[in-house]
Amino acid sequence: MQRQELARYSRQLILPHFGSQAQLELKHARVLVIGAGGIGCPAVQYLASAGVGWITVMDADAVETSNLSRQVLHTDERVGTNKAASIAAAITLLQPHVHVEAVACALRADNAFMYAQRHDVILDCTDNVMTRYLISDAGVLAGKPVVSGAAQGYEGQLMVLHRPLADGRRGPCYRCLFPEAPRPEHTQSCDDGGVLGCVTGIVGTWQALETIKLLTGLGDTTPNLLFFTPMDTQAVRCVRVRPRQTRTCRACGDADQVPNKIVHLPDEDYVSFCASAVAPIHVPSIDVNHVQGTDALIVDVRPSHEFAITSLPHSLHIDWDSMRRDLPRARARITEAAQGRPIYVVCRRGNDSRAAVQQLALPNCFNVTGGLRAYAEYDTSFPMY
């Protein structure tokens, strides 16, 4: 190591069981970080600061203003820039002794194995169920552990998949723990459900710590699932997970036990497996350009705290949860307020409103396609969050 590196890493070098050997292992390591958002930013920042020599960051998205409260390596000046490139630019200023490769594309079935096999550890910093299965499967095929983090609302969780164990075996993969994918209506992204920036910061920092442990051989190897629930009296919980499912798991099970074992990622239909190919709900819909200046009754089905942020003028607010609990009452309120006018149902992104139109089953009732996010693009004076 160079003199400047010794000075930079001095506080971790003097730690018991760390020393120069662990630092050299970090320097020669290659880490793949998939997702350059709220979790990926702190993970990359702490990995780079600790001296991980090569970090590849993959993300196809561009930086948006709404990202900045939690995606702490991005800046106002880099809004519109690819997120992976933005992180690489930030780390260049932060840490001159490591290399960050920016890959401005999404992880896909046709490139996942290639990227996985080039690295020592993979970090799943995404909020997409389909991508989680793909990352885990790629890690299994390439023989690489996956540090998987998730954050939603006020809560976070972390687990290490396909972890090398003390006896030479491997811990469970994502399919071992979740053999059946949740249906799309049972999942939410941060964009839909919201998240507190501090939570993503904690989860990303946890991921960096677990990655350093894997690269240096420090710490316990017991497969666990960590939960972070700061609004509870017990803010951190550690749950032991089920072992590797050698007889049933299509990803990491034994070949002589599992007849349909995954051997080639492009042959897998991840879309159908994750139920994203379920036929969409078809309901009467209108484009956002019909909303401005309309005489129709606008029904806003967002939660109350979102309705308080901003709303269209003269909207009738009935949140979707209340509507589902008492559909007859909701129908009566809407019918009375409409007085024969068309009914336009709106939410933030057009998902809950589509379901509401289907459940209401009222005549002359339409979903506003794309919701208020789409309306804000049409009417740029409308404040959007």
CATH class of the largest domain: Alpha Beta
Mean pLDDT: 92
Name the beta content range. Answer: 15-25%
Compute the number of helices. Answer: 16
Task: Determine the CATH superfamily of the largest domain.
Answer: NAD(P)-binding Rossmann-like Domain
Q: How much helix, percentage-wise, in residues?
A: 25-40%
Rounded to the nearest angstrom, the distance between the terminal CA atoms is 47 Å
**Structural class by helix and strand composition:** alpha/beta
Q: Spatial order of the strands in the main sheet?
A: 3-2-1-4-5-6-7-8
Q: Tell me what the CATH architecture of the largest domain is.
A: 3-Layer(aba) Sandwich
InterPro entries: Rhodanese-like_dom, Rhodanese-like_dom_sf, ThiF/MoeB/HesA, ThiF_NAD_FAD-bd, Ubiquitin-activating_enz
Subcellular location: Cytoplasm, Cytosol
GO cellular component, one term: cytosol
Protein name: Similar to S.cerevisiae protein UBA4 (E1-like protein that activates Urm1p before urmylation)
How do you describe this structure in short?
The chain has 385 residues and is an alpha/beta fold. The protein contains 16 helices and 13 strands.
Q: What secondary-structure arrangement, pairings included, does this model have?
A:
Layout lengths: L2 H6 L1 H4 L5 H9 L2 E5 L5 H11 L3 E5 L24 H12 L4 E5 L8 H6 L3 E4 L4 H14 L3 E7 L2 E7 L12 H4 L12 H4 L3 H20 L7 E5 L7 E5 L29 H4 L11 E2 L10 E4 L3 H4 L8 E2 L2 H6 L1 H12 L4 E4 L5 H9 L4 E4 L2 H8 L7
Parallel strand pairs: 1-2, 1-4, 2-3, 4-5, 9-13, 10-11, 10-12, 12-13
Antiparallel strand pairs: 5-6, 6-7, 7-8
Helix pairs in contact: 4-10
Protein name: Similar to S.cerevisiae protein UBA4 (E1-like protein that activates Urm1p before urmylation)
GO molecular function, one term: thiosulfate-cyanide sulfurtransferase activity
Keywords: ATP-binding, Nucleotide-binding, Nucleotidyltransferase, Transferase, tRNA processing, Ubl conjugation pathway
